[in-house]
Design goal:
It contains three helices and no strands. It is mainly α. It has one domain. Helix 1 (2-22) packs antiparallel against helix 3 (46-74). It is elongated. The two termini are 21 Å apart.
Length: 84
């Protein structure tokens, strides 16, 4: 179970980083790198930016939940480690 949560946590981390970098900020965002504005056209509308904000919020909540889950599982005394 720990391994499943750990893998899910890493996937969420990568997706969270990407969703934050793709959002348009005050300086234009990381999205301008991909084809000079193609990504900007997708996410420049108010519905596109709201979608990215909702995705980021959901990923942040999942990140917190998986972090708490990993903490609970690692606090168990019966968990085996590599070093014996």
């Amino acid at each position: 179970m720990y391994t499943i949560i750990y893998i899910f946590h890493i996937i969420i981390c990568v997706l969270l980083i990407l969703s934050i970098l793709l959002q348009l900020g005050q300086m234009g965002g990381f999205g301008g790198i991909f084809g000079g504005g193609g990504v900007d056209q997708i996410f420049s509308t108010s519905s596109g930016s709201m979608f990215m904000k909702k995705v980021t919020i959901v990923l942040a909540v999942l990140f917190v939940l998986t972090t708490i889950g990993l903490t609970i599982f690692s606090a168990r005394t019966g968990l085996e480690t590599i070093v014996r």
